[in-house]
Each structure stands twice: as C-alpha cells, then as structure tokens.
C-alpha cells in the first residue's frame, strides 16, 4: 500500500502542553496523515454515543470502537489511526478494513473501485477514505450491524449469556460484544466453528492453523467480554436472536 502525503502539522504548542510523540508501530504500517490530535479523557464501560469531541465518541459504542482500534494497533498512530494503511494486507484506517470487508459491505466493487454507497459518505478513492474519519465510523457501524445479522443467521447469537470451555480448560463468558469483536478479528464463520468445536468435539485434534485461529477468537471473547456493547441491528432481529431455537431471518 502506498502512504498518503502528510498534511501540514499545526504550529507547535508550548512545551508543557505538547502531547508526547507516539512511537512508530512495528510491522511496516504506513501512516498517511501526520497531524496528531490532543488526547481527551476516555469514558470506560459505557455503550453511549455523542459524549466526546473525537469522531468515534459521536458514534454508537465508543469504548468498544476504541478497544478495537487498540487491538488492531492503529490507535497508537497519529490522528488516532484514521490514516493508517497496512502495506502487507491492504487494510485501511482506524479499524483496518480489508479490501474484502469493504467489498462485502458494498463500499467497493469487484473491480476494486469505490461504489455509490461510499460516494454518499464522501469517498471516491483510498485517499478519501483515509482522510475521512466520519466515513470510517459510518463503515464501522455498517460492519457491526452486518456482523450481528450474520451471527444471528449462523446461530451464534443464541449463545449470548452462556459460557464455553476454552482451549486451556478455562471457562469463557459469551457476551454480545465479545462475539462481535471475535467476528471482527476472524470472521463470523470461524467464530461458529470455534464454538462448535468447543461444545461438541472439544477433544478433536486441531491443525496448527486451526489452533492459531481459535486462539485469536478466544482472546477477543475474553478481552471484550467486559466491554459494554449496544446492539445496532433492528429490534425484531434482536428478539429473534434471543429466542432459543428460533429460525434465522430470511436472506
């Protein structure tokens, strides 16, 4: 991935007020925009929105979004990671959207171009996306709603409120936020496979690749279990997901 040119940095503040420079992130990330925002107090353990001046704080589930950005290591960068581009995977922005994810969301087409949906959010190019925090937050909201519906349809959401025995024998609580975060990391299908393995065939052997994927799922379930999360999908879908044995909604 090619980085964007850095925008001019605002004039320096007095030494006492200047934020400490962030260290470069190992792993070859390229930062497209260089101007850093001054840190603001964080609000922990709430799923509210519109509570702060930073872009994600005006969106649903601000603490969850911040934790995702921290898990992706993008939050360590200038502009809170909105200008980050991973040159290896092609992942973009604060939430590290892969090209395949943007295609699945309808923001990009099969030819790699940006769609009319993206244009409605002011995005006609990769540079536009990296320079537009509001568009990235809108894409994240779209992504979270889509993941929730996928987890309903594959039956995972019915496990909310239960537990599962982890790979090391530790009991792991299954929360909505934890499951959505796990799906963000490894996909809804992998989360379903993990739960099926741990529930139905816990002694079945795993390949090294499967074990690595399942460990990534477990870390998200554990790390995001205590994080407040308010569902973004329509109310009828939430009721359906909560009903044991309910049929999935039609495609």
- Helix and strand content put the structural class at mainly alpha
Order of strands across the biggest sheet? 1-2
Radius of gyration: 19 Å
What gross morphology would you assign? globular
First-to-last CA distance: 35 Å
Helix content: 25-40%
Give the strand content.
under 5%
Written overview of the protein:
The chain is mainly α and 251 residues long. Helix content is 39%, strand content 4%. The chain is built from 9 helices and 4 strands; from the N terminus they run βαβααααββαααα. It has helices at 62-71, 99-105, 116-120, 126-130, 133-153, 176-186, 188-200, 208-224, 235-242, and strands at residues 30-31, 84-85, 163-165, 171-173. A two-stranded antiparallel sheet has the order 1-2. A two-stranded antiparallel sheet has the order 3-4. Helix 5 crosses helix 6 (176-186), helix 6 crosses helix 7 and helix 6 runs antiparallel to helix 8. The longest helix is centred in the middle third of the chain and has 21 residues, at 133-153. The two termini are 35 Å apart. The model is unreliable at 1-48 and 239-251 (pLDDT under 50).
How would you concisely characterize the structure shown here?
Helix 6 (176-186) packs across helix 7 and helix 6 packs antiparallel against helix 8.
Question: What secondary-structure arrangement, pairings included, does this model have?
Answer:
Elements: E1 30-31, H1 62-71, E2 84-85, H2 99-105, H3 116-120, H4 126-130, H5 133-153, E3 163-165, E4 171-173, H6 176-186, H7 188-200, H8 208-224, H9 235-242
Antiparallel strand pairs: 1-2, 3-4
Helix pairs in contact: 5-6, 6-7, 6-8
């Amino acid at each position: 991935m090619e980085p964007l040119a850095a925008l001019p940095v605002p004039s320096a503040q007095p030494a006492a007020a200047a934020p400490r420079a962030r260290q470069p992130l190992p792993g070859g990330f390229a930062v497209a925009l260089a101007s850093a925002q001054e840190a603001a107090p964080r609000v922990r353990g709430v799923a509210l929105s519109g509570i702060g001046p930073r872009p994600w704080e005006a969106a649903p589930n601000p603490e969850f979004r911040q934790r995702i950005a921290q898990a992706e290591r993008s939050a360590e960068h200038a502009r809170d990671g909105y200008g980050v581009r991973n040159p290896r995977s092609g992942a973009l922005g604060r939430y590290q959207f892969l090209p395949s994810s943007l295609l699945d969301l309808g923001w990009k087409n099969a030819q790699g171009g940006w769609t009319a949906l993206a244009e409605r959010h002011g995005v006609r190019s990769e540079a536009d996306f990296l320079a537009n925090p509001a568009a990235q937050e809108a894409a994240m909201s779209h992504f979270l709603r889509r993941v929730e519906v996928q987890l309903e349809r594959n039956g995972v959401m019915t496990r909310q409120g239960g537990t599962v025995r982890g790979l090391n024998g530790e009991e792991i609580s299954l929360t909505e936020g934890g499951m959505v975060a796990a799906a963000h990391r490894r996909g809804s299908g992998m989360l379903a496979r993990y739960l099926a393995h741990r529930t139905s065939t816990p002694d079945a052997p795993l390949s090294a690749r499967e074990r690595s994927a399942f460990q990534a799922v477990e870390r998200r379930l554990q790390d995001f279990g205590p994080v407040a999360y308010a569902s973004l999908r329509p109310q009828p879908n939430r009721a359906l997901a909560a009903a044991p044995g309910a049929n999935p909604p039609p495609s």
